[in-house]
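My current task is to audit a protein record that another person submitted. My question to you is simply how this chain folds and whether the tokens agree. This is what I was given:
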Amino acid sequence: MTPRGSTAAAPIVPYLPAGPVTLSIDIGGSGLKAMLLDADGKPVSERQRVLTPIVPTPQAVLEKLDELRKLLPAFDRVSVGFPGVVKRGVTIQSANLHPDWANFPLQDKLAERWQKPVRVGNDADVAGYGAIQGKGVELVLTLGTGLGSALFTGGHLAANLELAHHPWRKKGQVYEDYLGRRGLDKYGKARWNDFLEAAIKQTAATFNWDYLYLGGGNAKKILFTPGPNVKIISNETGILGGVMLWRDQA
């Protein structure tokens, strides 16, 4: 794999994939990641990563995405997982990036910039598509700069579930205050793990999920063994679900 922050070119795709090649992008608070996927959602390139701009305005992020694009071979279309509410390709808000993302037409802007078809969805939703089995009630929590969440029933998405901003524990506090990076930095790894165990129990009581998936960059900091029907998923799952944004036109 290419080292963190590397700008080395990705290897050429070793075979001609069947169907359209999707450039799948995961926009995060600390890094922008991308990989090429075939029509079945299987990787056909190495994952590439560049750092998220220190001041992550839309223009700054778009310029970094231009850099990321150059690290990969040719593609036919683009899927983007964005850390915030997304409706019809417009980013409604993103608490962990920059206020300028409010009502920003990312899908149209990127399509115009790259002259490729583009679809944009919430990053936890995309990660969920890459993780779920499509059976029963399945909840996905991504542990990173913030807290992402996605809920599926029988494989169908309940879009834009923002559990991160739901009140929890103390008055004026929300899930993200404990499980996002600021909670990890404030309370330390041991207490962060305690909060996560408590959140697993709370979400089980709230959603009656059949399966829970824990992902994101901070999932590697989990110290306990999750219970039955709880699975820790790879951080790359946020990229691998990108093809599903095109499933009605595959």
